[in-house]
Design a protein that fits this description.
Peptide Deformylase; globular; two-stranded parallel ribbon; 4 helices; five-stranded antiparallel sheet; 29% strand; alpha+beta
Length: 184
């Protein structure tokens, strides 16, 4: 099933998501549907449950499309359930980011170069792993969603002010996307 992407301005994107248990209804199907929704968007490499209207601590990432650029991404397709970033470390690195929930806006965001994250996989096996560079950036971006944040929260107030009219248009659904979307 392809879900609509909830756009900037929808209240679900600002809620801190709640943990789920392994008896969450149709969890494996939900994870499969999230990957399918992400692939259908054509631009996504990560998708968090709040972006499809579910305020639960779940996000998916598939970096395998970037394996030609970085061989370590060859089999990087993961579901992160009840994730907690326990450490952010390393240099602060600034790079361009975009988001399916904020279409048409890409901005430079500064994030730490490394993270340690504890999470459960789709089989509810616990993991604690370190990620660096681009993988750490994508994880932090998706993790922000389950904490009620979006990438523009990392911008300066002046930069956010400059984007205000574009953000207002997105919130009103006055935007062109190649995927289904839902506004507040």
């Amino acid at each position: 099933m392809i879900y609509p992407i909830y756009l900037y301005g929808h209240p679900v994107l600002r809620k801190i998501a709640t943990p789920i248990s392994k008896d969450y209804p149709n969890l494996n199907q939900l994870i499969a549907d999230m990957f399918e929704t992400m692939y259908k968007s054509e631009d996504g490499i990560g998708l968090a449950a709040p972006q499809i209207g579910l305020s639960i601590r779940l996000f998916v990432i598939d970096l395998s499309v970037l394996a030609d650029e970085d061989a370590s991404f060859k089999d990087f397709k993961k579901a992160f359930i009840n994730a907690q970033i326990t450490e952010r470390y390393g240099d602060s690195v600034s790079k361009d980011e975009g988001c399916l929930s904020i279409p048409g806006i890409n901005e430079t965001v500064t994030r730490k170069n490394g993270v340690v994250i504890k999470y459960l996989d789709e089989n509810f096996v616990e993991h604690e792993e370190k990620y660096e560079s681009f993988a750490a950036r994508v994880i932090q971006h998706e993790y922000d969603h389950i904490e009620g944040h979006v990438f523009i929260d990392h911008l300066s107030p002046i930069r956010r002010q400059l984007l205000k009219s574009k953000l207002t248009n997105i919130a009103k659904g006055k935007v062109s996307c190649r995927y289904k979307f839902k506004t507040a």
